[in-house]
Amino acid sequence: MSGARLFGPAWLTEGVKEALLQALVALILAVPLIGLKTVQEPGGLGLQTRWPAVAIAVACVFVGRLLLVIARHVWPPRPKAAQSPVVAARIRRFVRLLGPAAIAFALLLPFLPFADRYVLDVSILVLTYVMLGWGLNIVVGLAGLLDLGYVAFYAVGAYSYALFAANFGLSFWACLPIAGALAATFGILLGFPVLRLRGDYLAIVTLGFGEMIRVILINWSSLTNGPRGISGIPRPDFFGVPFNPSPAPDASAFHTLFGIAYSPIQRVIFLYYLILVLALLTNLFTLRIRKLPVGRAWEALREDEIACRSLGINPTNTKLTAFAIGAMFAGFAGSFFATRQGFISPESFTFLESAIILAIVVLGGMGSQVGIVIAAIVLIGGPELVRELEEYRMLAFGGLMVLIMVWRPRGLLAFREPTIRLADFDRTARARSEPAATVP
Amino acid sequence: MLRVEGLHTFYGSIEALRGVDLEVSSGEIVALIGANGAGKSTLLMTICGQPHAARGQVRFGDDDITQWPTHEIIAAGIAQAPEGRRIFARMSVLENLLMGATSADPQHFESDLTRVFTLFPILKERRDQRGGTLSGGEQQMLAIARALMSRPRLLLLDEPSLGLAPMVVKQIFRVIQEINEQQRVTVFLVEQNAFHALRLAHRGYVLVNGRVTMTGTGRDLLANPDIRAAYLEGGH
After folding, report:
1. Domain-embedded: residue A148
2. ipTM for the complex?
3. How many beta carbons lie within 10 A of that of residue A32, not counting itself?
4. Closest CB from A296, A302, A312 relative to B95
């Protein structure tokens, strides 16, 4: 072995080899990506080569890797002890406090000094994705059904509101349940053919379903107005009272109702609270249903379908309810999206949206409600934060995601709280036995 | 209680069961022994309706359950601890037990929980622990306890000794006997560990290539030279 040693200790030789290998990979990638540039030339496109840039990139990778190897030698990574129960308990307590704190902050946000129009708009966007994440979490996180076409239900909700409002003049509040019900129906429609599929196969079919809905929206021009989309979707009103700067003399508007001066931000604040309430409802629903038999059956189904069958759980109903309820919340969110934008087109419902929502759920830790909020803030708010980087924005964003996956490969908050503890059971037992004791 | 007549089951074109007849009477422990691939697990799965039998009949009590969907068969009073235990790894022990009670009347939940905690005291200690963190023996106990939570009249056990240390196997089999004698649950047990299974069982069947080739009391089968040669020699 010592004969192969060119210089320095063995770990350094190994490190140089490793760095060379990485540099080679970088070279292969950099030649087409960085080395070749298409330029406009008289008579068509021409190729320009940029070999110095390639050399710099490869050198950066080599040196960076080498430094990493050296760093690893100087500060060897401590062997990762299993997370001690004390630390785990502390994290749990922190998360339990984080939830109410976040809700309080969200409730107060519009009245905080820095909350201008821009902050509110970004917050509304983030909350929309929080709601979508919570909705998809029912399907992916709880029931374990990998759904790559979730945006289809979002689209169904958005188009239901737009079409019902435009054609029948129904209000947002009347359309909301319709949109939810329609989306749930589509959820069941998707559910039936995929009942026997799991994992990759399910993912492919749901992916196709998402695209189908989008293509139908593009091509069914007589109903959906095709790729031009639907514009002039009614904006939401304050339970029947419009946000109108100059209402007719005999009609009321939001600001006259409350006797305050008109400001365009009132509508934004209302939208903010609307999506906050919708999202919190989704959360509340999920937290409750996890403790009900159907919610537990979802989680059991995620763990082991065969065991579920052998325990007498009907997997058909369990899967269909998961698809339907997950889709319903996407439908609600879709209605909200339509009323906020005032304009929708199939462009808004591409696969990328599904991927982002799924990324939020996975990054949040598959099943963790708080994790999803953090992930939505990172994924949706993150690109806003690094907006100054301009064209390097997505690069920084991608790097951030890689870092998260390196540090927390199972998602930000990957633990799950049991839905029942013996203490609960003792309490119900006592509650039940006490009134019984009074009976002679 | 359970009567299987001329049962044929196919996986595609492969005939896994070629006309199985057997019977389990109320209060018995019946063992089915056989080598790998003999069709033991297939028989249990067919009784539970997945897959459904191609021909033949499964009768439970007075009902012909051959073509019933699985969840109705379970609700009728058959419970199964499936092969490989298949506990819900990320759910707590208590939640696993709760899932077992899916088809039972919720008003019995508390007394049933007390019952399985008496049978398996270790599960009470571990009740808030995740199923996946239990040892193999504890997982098998949890699988059996989970099956008991549905208040079955007939308990089907698929290789409860699989992959467990001899000491733990003894312990599990002792509990199975307790379940049968004290809780009055009929047990139909599929095993490769013929020695333990036949010592425990009142009666036994031997399954070879999808057919029952021999039957008798547990003791007779244990004494049978052919069985000793095929299933016991070199084992214990």
Report:
1. yes
2. 0.87
3. 9
4. A296
